[in-house]
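Dear U.,

For the methods section draft, I wanted the exact inputs and outputs in one place so we can describe them consistently. I've listed the two proteins in the order they'll appear in the manuscript figures. Please don't edit the token lines directly; just add comments below if something needs changing.

First protein:
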Amino acid sequence: MIGILRWAAVCAALGIGLAEAAAQGTIEGTVTDRATGDPVTGATVVVKGTLRGAACDAMGRYRIAGLDAGTYDLEVTMLTYAPCLIPDVEVRSGQTARADAALEEQREEIDQVVVTAVRRRDSEAAVNFDVRHAMMVVSGVSSQTIARTQDRDAGEVVRRIPGISLIDDKFVIARGLSQRYNNVWINGAAVPSSEADTRAFSFDLIPAGQIEHIMVLKSPAPEVPADFSGGFIRIGTKDMPAQEAVSIQYALGVNTETHFRRFLFNRGSGTDWLGFDNGKRGVSGGIEAPLDNGDAQHVTRMTREGFNNDWRVRSRRPIPDQRLAVAFGKAWSLRDGKKITLNGAVNYSYSSRTYAGMDNCRYGVYNKKEDKPEYLYKYTDDQYRTTVKAGAMLNVAFIGTRSRYYLRNLLNQVGQDRYTAREGWQNISSLYVQRKAEYLYTSRTTYNGQVAGVHEFAGSRLDWNAGYSYANKHVPDRRIVNLQENDLYGDAHYGEMGIDQNEIRRDFTRLREHIASAGINYELRMREGRKVAPTLRTGAYGEFRTRDYRARAFFYRFNPSNLPADFVYGDVVDEILYPGNYGADKLYIYDDSNNRDCYEGENLLAAAYAAINFPLGPLTLYAGVRFEHSGMDLKSYTRSKEWTSKTTRYDYTDLFPSVNLTWKLSEAHQLRAAYGRSTNRPEFREVSASTFYDFDLFSIVMGNPDLKAAYVQNADVRYEWYPSPSESISLAVFYKHFRHLIETTFRDAGGSYTYTFENADAARVYGVELDVRKNLGFMGLPAFSLSLNASWIHSRVRFGDGSLEHDRPMQGQSPYLVNCGLFYQPERAGLTVGLLYNRIGKRIVGIGRADLSGGGTVDNDIPDMYEMPRDALDVVVTKKLGRWELRLSARDVLAQSVRFCQFPRYTDDEGREHERIEVTKRFRPGCTFSLGASVSF
């Protein structure tokens, strides 16, 4: 019934839209250059106060149909021209009104230097302009699109771009390539990795309200780092305020699987609501303080007082999700047209999620004799998460006649408290019925600061930037409790759950990463105004990165002779972890830390490039070469209890050529072709010997010091059509060939896995991308617009002789991606209704093991694990009421289960091959409803 009502509401909204979309009247006209009389191609004519408008064609003509009878003001804009207002255009039902405009160029001549206004990049038309005039293959999304989709963070935004999908709702997969093959810059500066175990930037850290645009470069270019293969993602935050105003947004949300139900939690610190722990979860003396296991007095004191000993799990009804954002902007005009602008934002969100009844399994070789799965682990998890995000942005700009200077600051804090209750069994050497619990709190901080400048000269341009970035990830006091059923038949405690030595543990990890970077770019425009006018570009970039990773591990041990006989079968909170039991001769903490799990690293990257942009009539050639030297020093520790160390050096010096060719077929059509060489270097964590236990994988993760850098050959061809400044249609084909690509693998020790990293021999990836952003006026539906991007991708990884791996698709690669948005914006109603659809094809999220021995068969294989396709449908509604704006959204209204599956195969006695399905993980994310309002003043 609920599903029917949801669809009825959607259909009703769209039905109303179809009725209102009936054409009433039309405005048409021509936009010309006042000085020359030439048509101004691409000028935008918009009905003031609405999003309705049109773009001028090659003859400067425009047409806006479907207007209700009434009087309208029109705004006419075009780059390098002064805006123009056409007031009081009267539209009558069934008639066409004429409104022409003559634009004046907006520029000043100062010592033969032409200075134009700073172009805003927050609209669809502006991003389209950047994509269209870029010298390489680029895709992008603007804050105008973000406002329509009501996306909450950069992760939700970036998946609107063709070929982009997400893993864990925060890590980007670009063109089928996992997060380690993508690079991220914010405001032109590098950002640290937010994860301890892999090279990855967590896109959920950045609120959508701070973003002006996101651009994804898909072909290599001389001016960008060579260490990317899937996508080079540039995030730009808001510099120039759209208006001098203060806006406040507030929203409430509920999730159908979480709210109005029981929610389990362990009491945290007094600052959890701000996204970080205030020290309550810390260890006495700090994460690096030693604990002498042989000092009984010290052990007793640490057991009793050195940790947070509140283990009690409580229950509550979660409050609705909260989101608050405050944005402000101000501009001060100075003499001679100079300007100072200030743009700031503060944001906060609090959300809860429950994943109850989550299946979490691991399988062995399929039992073909009985035709049934062979479980190694079979658990059911109940997981409860509370996530807090807080952030602030403050950007200042000075806009001069020749120069512009920027000071940018971006700070974000994320804290997540998670409690997992697990029940089930494992069956490796024998069957063990188990009950487990994990208490996990994680906090992450990112800061990006930058000073930048742009200087315009006669025939040339210089820009520079210097930045500092910081990221940390703290896991203070991850606690794991393992209970196991007594299976000794006839024992007095048969069938009861009990603990054993070392089965209650506490882990502490701390990751800190700093990046200092500086870059300079110079552009020289030669023979300006002539038929052949090449542009030379050159620049340099330097980056120094440091990382420090610390880990501590503690277990609880006990002396049974000094404790009650049934001590191990008591209640964990009230009877085992009871203060009266603490002592070096009873229940005590044991420091099992291994210094080899810690490491430090430094990486210096030095780069320089030279390129030429050479126009040849309708053809434009952009070619160049980039030099990069990367020197990484990894300091690892060689003893478990002593701080003796060794430093390993990893040096890479390479040249990376690239060629981008654009053929302008007509004013609205162009064809691109691109080739470039890129790389993917190992990260600190991937070459360290550090180990970490992953509760979700039931496994240890460790590095591989023998990893080599991967090298990639990239080729792209893309056709682009721009029907108007805010519309685009493109079709792209791409191909990538990898040598020594880095993939995750595992080592099997009788059912216990250790995950690590390995160089495959080679791989190839190829695919097709379609992107459509089009108003549906040509179908008689001018109030409707369509946003569609779809990708088909194929990959194959080939492993060398001697590898335990089998040839397979790349991890994280989906064979297809579909993102679709249908928007309805009726004239003068201040209303936007949107339907957003997303689906990804099944992709490998866990690798298997093939029987590669002589005479091996599929009967002995452990198949790869796939995340299965699911349909995600969102409904968003926005209504403007003067200074107020109301927002309503329903996210994931279909609420389909998330499933991870394996597909084992076996041959029967007659030699026929069969395939079965095994569900390794399954949970229900639920549907999230949100209601919000914003006001500007």
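Second protein (the one for the lower panel):
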Amino acid sequence: MTVPGRRSSTFSRLLRLGFTDPSAAGRLLALDELAPLRDDAVLLDALGATADPDLALRGLVRLVEAQPEAERPALTTTLLSAKPFRDRLLGVLGTSEALADHLARHPHDWQALVTYEAADLHPGIAEFEQGLAAAGEPVALRVAYRRCLLSIAARDVCGTTDVSQTAAELADLATATLRAALRIARAAAPEDAAQCRLAVIAMGKCGGNELNYVSDVDVIFVGEAADGADEAKALQAATRLASHLMRICSETTVEGAIWPVDANLRPEGRNGPLVRTLSSHLAYYQRWAKTWEFQALLKARPVAGDAELGAAYIDALSPLVWQAAERENFVPDVQKMRRRVVDNIPAAQVERELKLGPGGLRDVEFAVQLLQLVHGRSDTTLHSGTTLAALAALAAGGYVGRADAAQLDDAYRFLRAMEHRIQLYRLRRTHLVPEGEDDLRRLGRSLGLRTDPVAALGREWRRHAAVVRRLHEKLFYRPLLDAVAQLAPGEIRLSPEAAGQRLEALGYADPAAALRHLEALSSGVSRKAAIQRTLLPVLLGWFADSADPDAGLLGFRKVSDALGKTPWYLRLLRDEGAAAENLARVLSAGRLAPDLLLRAPEAVAILGDPQGLKPRGREHLEQEVLAAVGRADGAEQAVAAARGVRRRELFRTAAADLIGSYGTEENPREPDPGALVDRVGQAVTDLNAATIAGALRAAVSAEWGDELPTRFAVIGMGRFGGHELGYGSDADVLFVHEPREGVDEQEAAQAANRVVTEMRRLLQLPTADPPLLIDADLRPEGKSGPLVRTLKSYGAYYRRWSLVWESQALLRAEPMAGDAELGARFIELVDPLRYPMEGLGEDAVREIRRLKARMETERLPRGADPTLHAKLGRGGLSDVEWTVQLLQMRHGWAEPGLRTTRTRAALAAAHAAGLIATDEAQTLDEAWVLATRVRNAVMLVRGRPGDTFPSEPRELAAVGRYLGYGPGHVGELVDDYRRITRRARAVMEELFYGA
């Protein structure tokens, strides 16, 4: 009798045993069918030891109920008397609902779990073939397959086999199943079978002896004619047999499907013939195959059909696999493959993805396979298709650190065990970790996590995934450091030849120099060397992800040599995760940014500051520059300080541009290239304006003290006035002055000229900082005219002599330094010229068109490709800017939005005013942004300005990377540039020339 208010002892016991619904479990145990079992304490304990006691009990009830009444005692007696059987059966029922369903449909199959002999503990292909031998048609094959699967699952959940043995058994069962399916297909078409020889080559996890419970089985078919048969007819017969084999395994019947047979790894994929001859396979792989196809062949293994033909296939293709690392495109292919492909995983599933997510199974498999391809050329011990066996061989050969290999082996086994148990539950193909509490509890318990299984599972999964994430890259690079380091006795290191092979495979053009840099950076017992040994494996990966890994590594050595003794530098790289990646991106993307950094390496601190990459405004910069000038002793020292600020800010701008263009692990690349162009143009304009203001202050102070005898202003022109400067642009300017009250005009003019001369001298002094060239050639009368004029002189010239091109040039005029009020009056003076009332007359329009046509024929450099010249070529900067400027001069008097010095802003205003159609405006804007970015890229990559794409392949690849084109896609960059600018030229000819 149950005491009121207290639970029954059975309820409490079931709760302690792990049942989540003890009431339902109690009702099931009370069923008549379970009468022989309900009071057996050992059986209850065995149920409690399963992954899901409730599930195990429900499955047991269904199995007992499905037994014919006369045979039921045999099951219950065996359950009570045979512990191995009891553990196996209940272990399966508590882990797999799908196998419980199978047992309920086929109630005699429990007997497959009774035998417990040596051969039964570790069966091979022969034992599985014997288990499938009686199956003569697809439905019977499915039942026999599930019966064999039942025994594999039982050994797995009871711990008789470990995860790698279970995966091997699943591959052996798949081999036996493919052989049985081919036997059934041949029996159904004996004429076809007589005409051909057909070999089935397993690929993927089946080929690698590491199959999942539910997975596509990847295969390739090889066919030859039987003696005396016609080859074409034999291949048709072999294709029919192969297709039938695939259907036998894949089609859904009353007993479901076994698994899909996938032949898409064959030459040409699904577009290629299903069956080829050996010579056809060989010809394809010799001529057309890509690197990933050789990577796939690592796991090729003949499993069914003609054994002699299968062996011949492996013998013929295996040498090609190990020559893949010598192929021309191996490095860019590797770079492409190394980039994680998680784009196709829905965002909501990335964190649950066991195979493809960060720190997932694919990371381990890919890393191991890539190292096999690189080093398997010269070491046959690495020729294994099994991931864990290959990993062990890599460690034994010194290609991977032993400790790293051990950790990776442990993590891979845990992740594969998770994958197995997730799939075993319903025998469905999935790599997603479940979200439900009950599912996670069952999964955790199935892996031996009995105390708070849900929380423990989460912790263990995160720990192992973190290990994989950390070691995935380290696996490639750590042994490179060991190759040049002093190792403990007994440790195996990479030979210099093997280290060189690996560096070559990762894109390093000079492996010997790279190894020297690594030795210099990581040798010794100093704190600096220790921190750099930790950093370098990750940095090497980021360098390898760029177009010029050698330059990145060399730059890092130079920066470290300069800053290695400053504590903040190493602390910055060690503790600020973004700083190290930002530095790697900047050092390996071209010459300009590293050159700027190496002139004052302390600027590396910018890369670790979350706000460090944001450009400073002009007001802030001008304050800093003028303060530095005020503190300096003499004009040259003052301008040196100003140029130092400019160099630092150029580095900040270039670093932000590169990091925004490349993206980092934490921040994806900037999706809007126009925003990058605008930021660079504004930042460089601001810092040049501040530098000129500093040079002006220094020149005045040196001779006149606080005040010049004449008011003086610097007017920005061209890209400077348009806030569109690139890294290598000169500063186009006009100088204007106005004598102060009571000052003689000649004295004022002399003072103004001396100031200009001194400013230009100071800004071009040879120093470690890049010079700022001031170009005043857009002044009245050009190089023949005076450098400086009074405001009155400008007015007189423009009223009397001004030509239409000068009015056009003045569209970009904007005060940049000096007397603000004088600058504003200059703008008032030129506004009627650049935005003439009622617009331009037809004569002026014709003159502008004539000048443009003349420029196109005369100014393009000899030998330059007009389709690829960013400034003067077809659809380039000049075409877009002249088109926009003509619209400004014709309509600026009536449309206030057109009164801007900026090309993109004027283009947007013209569109808003209805002067240009949406698609035309977008076409011109896209071309202008692309051409500007090409010029910026050339300067960043080569360290000197240029208007055309570099001819040197590595430089061209770096330009492509900056513009968003990955390895191997430079051809697309050039094609896209020509296409975009061709469309812009068509718009320009219609709008500008009226074509």
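Candidate sentences for the figure legend, describing the second protein: Residues 882 and 992 are 8 Å apart (CA to CA). The two ends are 104 Å apart (CA to CA).

Thanks,
Y.
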